[in-house]
Amino acid sequence: MGDIVVNGLGKAYKSYPSQWSRLAEWINPSGKPKHRLQWVLKDINFHLKAGEAVGIVGANGAGKSTLLKLLTGTTRPTAGQISVNGRVAALLELGMGFHPDFTGRQNAMMGGQLLGLSVEEILRLMPSIEAFAEIGEYIDQPVRTYSSGMQMRLAFSVATARRPDVLIVDEALSVGDSYFQHKSFERIREFRRAGTTLMIVSHDRYAIQTICDRAILLQAGQLIKEGLPVDVLDYYNALMAERDQVHVRQERLEDGRMKTISGSGEATVAEVRLINAKGEPADTVEVGDALELQVRVAIRAHIPRLVLGFMVTDRLGQSIYGINTHRLDKPLTDLTPGEEILYRYRFPANIGKGSYSISLSLSREDSHLDMNYEWRDNAWMFHVFNSHQENFVGASWLDAKVEISRPTAPDASSAASP
Amino acid sequence: MSLSLSRALWRYRGFVLGSVKREFQARYRNSLMGAAWTVLQPLAMITVYTVVFSQLMQARLPGVNDPFAYSIYLCAGLLTWGLFGEIVQRCQTVFLDNGNMIKKLSFPRICLPTIVVTSALVNFAITFAVFLIFLLITGHFPSWVVLSMIPLLLFHAMFAAGLGIAVGVLNVFFRDVGQFINILLQFWFWFTPIVYSATTLPAAVRPWIRLNPLTPFAQAYQGIFVNGLWPQWSTLWPSIVLALVLCVLALSLFRNRSAEMVDEL
User: CA within 20 to 30 Å of B164's CA: A19, A193, B55, B173, which one?
Assistant: First the structure.
């Protein structure tokens, strides 16, 4: 249960030059076709084993939603086959079919029936739906009095009331407060542990990297990359920045990670070094060490404005810290070809133990999406060890101190003097 | 084909019945009298026809001298036409109206026209019950003959549903169909002997009226309620066959085009 096999999948919409040509085709179906096929998905192949989680990324209009709709059976494929084994639940549009004048309970009833659950089953699940939605007394109020967050909570609770074999999630989760977002992610993770196959479309890097084992990148209806979420997302990021240009290249590093470099090349990173207080290259760092990131930038063309940014990410690709010279109010202007610039960022390694990577971005503005001269993932990698500080957990070293008072202890005087 | 459709419907029966119930409730939400309005509406209609036509205008059916006869004649035709019209008109837009749901959710689409037909039948049942009570009170209840309403209404509703679903599917692709049907229904109403009796028409027109497949239904209803006569099945069977043909056509059209319909909405 929960296997998904997609074979040569394609979806095209018929496009007629006019209504009359459509009529002509209806009247004479054996005649010459009058329509043109507009392919939105072409030759998609992948195989998901039960319990796998895959993220689908791609720009708007890349065909992500169409792919999900094909998998849920809302639309039918023009070419190829999909076989989905087991019960599919989709969080495509939460609260679809909710009627504002009816109470939350009535709508939950309807919503469940629309998912194909029987009345008895919904009645049995109702207490858990109520408990998960946490909307209290509102469950018996008309849905029109709900805030959008409350509607979302109820809709999510109904849609996930029973564990499906395949769960398909579109963007839907980006609504609601962060508490509920966490809660819903927790439920999705729970489903996964129980063997639910997950397909998720999201622009949220964090969501995909923490939940998925794999990612698929769609571009203009084609599957152009499949692999580890971090690699696919890096590649996608680079593509996004460079929609109108140049090359993206990826190299595999010794540890198996991908290194992605992209950009227009008007400014490039000539050298990167992370050094410690002794001036040695820092591959291993102790918690709290003073570090300096040195970046030598070569200018290859006339550039009106230049911003260098760096981002420290952890093993899972989650951002730990990022800053750039725009935000530090030190952009450079009017650069000429042949110039060389040395940047030195200083910061303490107040981060938890583990392996980290530094990405660099040379751009015109704050975001590399505007004009990307160079984007370099995994430009430097280092490990953080903790042999000097207390043995804390987590990504940040907050250097907490503790003070304890115990005034009501039964024998305060003897406790003080051992 | 019809097997898989009916299996899907059975699986979603909760949704269909729930939607019918909800539609009914939605109409009277936030009203003090609630469902009483369902009864008051047809009651008002019957009263108006009785008072205006039988009492004020002294309208009489040819050959019947009962003051209530014309209003019973009118109601028999109008109420059943109402059922027919409601099914056709709502089926015609049912896919367009629920376009968003069809595009976003995966559920058997045949549920949608089923909900429309069921809720039209429920409305009709209430209206019709009021009519029967009116007949009882005025002493015009047509005895056992009234049972023949069951097969008549069944085929009549099938006729409407078949036509409605076919038009509903076509309307997704060609909006002209919907516009055309609205005009057609107006003409159709006046080409069916509902407010007049076919016998009052000039002899030259009468054969044309007989070609109208709804004429036998209307005349059967009027026969039952005005004269207490069993329907003449010999005049009805062409219409019944047509109803069945329409249903088969509509379902095959629906089946062949439902996938394309989703893309078109």
Answer: A19
How far is the CA of A78 from the CAs of A22, A23, A38, A44, A168, in angstroms?
A: 18, 21, 11, 12, 21
| Domain parsing of chain A, residue ranges | 260-385
Confidence label for A50 from pLDDT (cuts 50, 70 and 90): confident
Name the minimum distance, in Å, from the CA of A75 to any CA of chain B: 6
B residues 159..198 contacting A (CB < 8 A):
173-174
Distance CA A100, CA A98 (A): 6
Percent of chain B with pLDDT over 70: 98
Sketch the domain layout of chain B as residue ranges: 2-264
The CATH number of A260-385 is which of 2.60.40.1120, 3.40.1160.10, 1.10.10.10, 2.70.50.60?
Answer: 2.70.50.60
Q: What is the pLDDT of residues B118-149, one digit of tens each?
A: 999 998 998 898 889 888 888 888 888 888 89
Are the beta carbons of A339 and A303 closer than 8 angstroms?
no
Q: Closest approach of chain B CAs to the CA of A337, in angstroms?
A: 53
Q: Which of A23, A74, A117 sits opposite B105 (nearest CB)?
A: A74
* Global ipTM: 0.72
Task: Verify whether the Cβ–Cβ distance B14 to A90 is below 8 Å.
Answer: no
Query: In this complex, is the C-beta atom of B11 within 8 Å of any C-beta atom belonging to chain A?
Result: yes
**B45-55: pLDDT as tens digits:** 888 888 887 77
Residues in B touching A101 (Cβ below 8 Å): 26, 29-30
pTM value > 0.80 = no
